[in-house]
Design a protein that fits this description.
The complex is a heterodimer of chains A (346) and B (255). Chain A has 15 helices and four strands. Chain A has helices spanning 2-19, 23-41, 45-71, 79-95, 100-122, 127-147, 149-152, 168-191, 193-203, 205-210, 215-241, 251-264, 270-285, 293-307, 312-320; strands at residues 158-159, 243-244, 321-323, 330-332. In chain A, helix 3 (45-71) packs parallel to helix 8. Chain B has helices spanning 44-52, 74-80, 97-105, 108-111, 120-131, 146-158, 176-191, 212-218, 236-240, 243-250; strands at residues 6-15, 18-28, 33-37, 59-64, 67-68, 82-84, 164-168, 193-195, 198-200, 204-208, 221-226, 229-234. Classes of the chains: A mainly alpha (346), B alpha/beta (255).
């Protein structure tokens, strides 16, 4: 009994010292709690469905950030990975009768292969040329899908695939928990030594090579990791919607993910996720004025990017926290001195 | 005769019609410090870039400890033990200074050398301490001055524990005081030893420099390039008294 009390006390202490000290961490904790506790408040199928789709797209946006935000390999054809993941898991599920538990990971592996197929020819390209080349890949795949309607369903897509589960709550928790787990994994990757190399490749690739790092390996790693996560998102999407159509490969899909990531703040992982959770429900909310829906949406995005070029999350973070000039530890904006080194803030 | 550390044979590289490096051959022994001088556009930087693999030569070979370097990738050459600094410094500007050095510490060569560390930050910190900018380790690299950027370049290079270090204008754009400090750290590096958790045997060096006065104090031998060809080779005293070298630098006398 003492042991339980002791460990609970210790957990509380860690929570107080690590989470409660920074408003941004409190917000992240609240976000986790709110997502996991939402069904206690409402079980409205419409809201649950919106949150599930938002979670799927959050994985997708974060995977773009992993590749383009961190490594600087501007990918304007990210829908390719989403589409490959969706189509492969749908086809595997339909023809091989593998349940979603197996077909989603297999679809993700197909997306990794797609990542390598895109990544290898793109190794020599940079900036605009890379962006334009990657833009072509999903269009090529769409062409292939339309050319082989017997296997891919053509414009109608692959339908009749099974769901993970038919229960509302089961689906909700499956998608939300997957999203939170993958987000933490992606954030951990970017926070590790590998993340430092990804960052450095974005800054100056030649200098990374001259530091003795095999940049080819790391760029392909970024492409395949990004493909993996986007493929999982695609697979989840196909199984949730019970259809994998050519809309998953659309150009608008590729640009949507760029908008999300830039809106939230590139090279953060949490930025794009937050952006999806803001923008996707917002776009649904604008359904009240269907004629002006996309126009209002575009106006919101434009205004935000005009006044917060670093992304909304950076902007909010800088308002509620400030960085200690000496030890670079972040502090609550109301503090007068740093919580670690007691240096004067501002 | 023992194998030389570096053997460059009839190395040539032209950009269009311009012969940047034309049939250059020289050799270097272990632990030797070689000065590489010449007027602007003589091909000094190109020669360094050919050795490190940033540029591919048209002809010729570069052998480092018996291994051919031509045709290898840059990171491969760095992991064999040839490190270089850039003339126009290329830091990762939006990253903290320590992260700049951590990238070098993450290279395969660096992670198998020196003391084993659990946290790569410690090793990077030692490299920064050697270069003398450890107090700014957490700042972004974009805030550094010219002189400190040069130091950062040196820190990044020694973090890979090179056996041959190519320094491209280490004193370029530095104030006299900074130049003295840099010269001091180069001499200290050449002596070798332990810098915190980094070990160094004291690398051989090729130094490209225009400030001859400082350079003469450091180097054992000097190579003079002019218009891509080898003009002269010898000890500092021999080279500065060679009339052809004076002519290349200052032009011919009026009468």
């Amino acid at each position: 009994m003492d042991l339980v009390v002791y460990s609970l006390k210790k957990l509380y202490k860690i929570f107080r010292n690590e989470v409660l000290v920074l408003p941004s961490r409190v917000i992240v904790a609240l976000f986790f709690i709110a997502l996991l506790g939402l069904p206690l408040v409402t079980r409205d199928p419409y809201i649950i469905r919106i949150v599930i789709l938002t979670s799927i797209f959050a994985i997708f946006a974060a995977s773009w950030d992993l590749l383009s935000g961190f490594t600087g390999q501007m990918n304007f054809g990210h829908a390719l990975f989403f589409g490959v993941g969706a189509y492969s898991s749908a086809l595997i599920n339909l023809h091989a009768h593998i349940p979603p538990w197996g077909s989603v990971p297999l679809g993700a592996i197909a997306a990794v292969l797609a990542g390598l197929i895109v990544g290898i020819p793109c190794l020599r390209l940079k900036h605009t040329y890379l962006a334009l080349t990657t833009l072509a890949f999903p269009i090529i795949l769409t062409g292939i899908i339309f050319a082989l309607p017997d296997y891919t369903g053509g414009e109608l897509g692959v339908s009749g695939i099974t769901r993970f589960t038919n229960s509302l709550l089961g689906n909700y928790y499956l998608h939300v928990v997957t999203m939170l787990t993958l987000a933490v994994i992606m954030w951990k990757i970017t926070d590790s030594n590998t993340g430092i190399i990804f960052h450095a490749i974005r800054e100056d690739e030649l200098a990374v090579k001259a530091s003795g790092i095999n940049t080819t390996f790391y760029k392909l790693l970024a492409f395949s990791l990004s493909g993996l996560f986007a493929g999982i998102a695609g697979g989840l999407y196909a199984h949730y919607m019970r259809i994998a159509g050519p809309s998953t490969l659309e150009v608008s899909m590729s640009f949507m993910v760029v908008i999300w990531a830039i809106f939230g703040g590139a090279a953060t992982i949490y930025g794009p996720i937050a952006a999806v959770f803001i923008l996707f429900p917002l776009l649904e909310f604008f359904r009240f004025w269907p004629e002006y829906r996309t126009m209002i949406f575009a106006a919101v995005v434009l205004v935000i990017l005009l006044y917060m070029p670093e992304g909304i999350i950076h902007w909010i973070r800088d308002k509620i926290e400030k960085e200690c000039p000496r030890c670079k530890i972040r502090n609550v904006a109301t503090r007068k001195s740093c919580r670690i080194c007691t240096a004067d803030l501002d | 005769m023992a194998e030389p550390l570096l053997q460059v044979e009839s190395l040539s590289k032209s950009f269009g019609g311009l012969k940047a490096v034309d049939d250059v051959s020289f050799r270097m022994e272990q632990k030797e410090v070689l000065g590489l001088i010449g007027p602007n556009g003589a091909g000094k930087t190109t020669l360094l870039r050919l050795i490190t693999g940033i540029l591919k030569p048209d002809r010729g070979s570069v052998r480092f400890k018996g291994k051919e370097l031509v045709g290898r990738s840059i990171w491969n050459i760095v992991n064999l033990g040839v490190a270089c600094t850039f003339q126009n410094m290329r830091p990762f500007r939006r990253m903290p200074i320590i992260a700049n050095v951590m990238v070098s510490c993450l290279s395969p060569r660096s992670s198998t050398r020196g003391e084993w560390v659990k946290k790569i930050e410690n090793k990077a910190m030692d490299a920064l301490e050697f270069a003398g900018i450890s107090d700014m380790a957490l700042e972004k690299a974009s805030v550094l001055s010219q002189g400190d950027l040069k130091r950062l370049e040196v820190a990044r290079a020694i973090a890979t524990d090179p056996e041959l270090l190519l320094l491209d204008e280490p004193f370029g754009g530095l104030s006299p005081a900074e130049t003295d400090l840099m010269a001091k750290s180069i001499r200290r590096l050449h002596k070798g030893g332990r810098f915190g958790r980094l070990h160094s045997e004291g690398p051989a060096m090729i130094i490209v420099e225009h400030k001859l006065h400082q350079l003469m104090k450091i180097v054992d031998r000097i190579i003079v390039l002019n218009f891509g060809t080898l003009l002269d080779e010898g000890t500092p005293e021999e080279v500065v008294n060679n009339p052809r070298v004076i002519e290349a630098y200052l032009g011919k006398g009026g009468d």
